[in-house]
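Hi, here's the filled form for the chain we discussed.

Project: internal
Contact: R.S.
Residues: 421
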Amino acid sequence: MLTVRENSIKSFLLLVAVFIFYLWLSLPYYSGDVKNHLIWGTSILKDGLLGFYQREFHDFSFPNYPPISMLLFAASVWLYNFVYHWATYLNLRFPFFPSGIIPFLQWENVQISFLKLTAIIPLILIGFLVYKYSKTSTLRQSGIFYSLIFLLNPAIIYLSVIWGQNDLLQNFFLILAIYLLLKEKLWWSYFTAGLAILSKQTVLMLWLLYLFVVFKRYGLKKSLSGLIVSLGLLFISYLPFHSLSLVWPFDFYRETLKTTGYLVSDNAINLWGLLFNFAKIDAGSIFLGLPLETWGYGLFIVLVTPTLYYFWKKRFAEEKVFHLFFIISSFYFLVLTRMHERYLIPTILFASILVIFKKKLYWFNLIFFSILHLLNLYRGLLQPDIPIFNMLTISVVFLDILVLGYIILLGVNAYQFFKND
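And the returned structure, exactly as it came back:
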């Protein structure tokens, strides 16, 4: 039997090995999105925080990420500059220094990999949370096994390590908030939930669901405390970036919610792709007197309302909480319009936690949605060139089958959710 100390050392070394593997894998490919992160981070280091969100970045995207992401981009640029400066200094100062490191660091992909740290580190941290939860939950499962299942998931690696998007950052804070909530560390939970919405706006719907779970478990007063903490953090975090009105942070945050795109299915393999043969249809197009976007919201409300009502009426259970987040995030991606391919990631994360509860359905969820997500991400990035993936992701028939499988599997999950107490 290994001691607690030996287990801790073993787990730490494993995470270090995975981290090094990620860094190596991150070098060959990346999305153009990461260049936006590089430009934004460089701007903060060069010109400071004040007025950052009012700056124009010609040929690059408008800075629409919240403060935590922007500060981490700046930290990543600073870290690269620090490493490059000292490597250059040591190369000039000491003859035995391996000079080949300098051209390696000058390779653009290396600099981009430093920006990917904002995606890779949250990935490692979620893997650690999976380890912790599996060890401390009532089931007392093998933490390393479930952590590796998560950390070596090809879809998650593709999003964070190859693509380089930091969508795991806000989800890390959300999962940490749920974990702390289940451990009854409420104020720390409120704090990390606030950090979630300050990392990326795409977590906003799940943040509202988090407050609903707090309401269910601890009542109105506690849920209002969570709301106030999050709004307070939002207000404070934007203060260094502007000298405008007191309501500006809330107005600006609301405006950034409108910058996600205009297509009914923005490369997402979901219901709208199935209905319109994955064509580029405007979400504002009118169908039976209403915009498609409104139909999406209507469908979402119809699906979510009975799910929340059932959760509210039944006894509180940890498994039920994670299954609720899995189902709601799956509804979200399936029926809402203007979905990007990346927005399915919360479903994968909660599926990765649910397998700890040792049910065949949960394993099937993880396998199916991981395959779906990987193919959907590849359909957006198309790197590296994988002929079989190319063939599958341009086949409308195959994509239709995936969506139908999605609907059926989600229906089975809803049935099990309502069936079990």
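Let me know if anything looks off before we file it.
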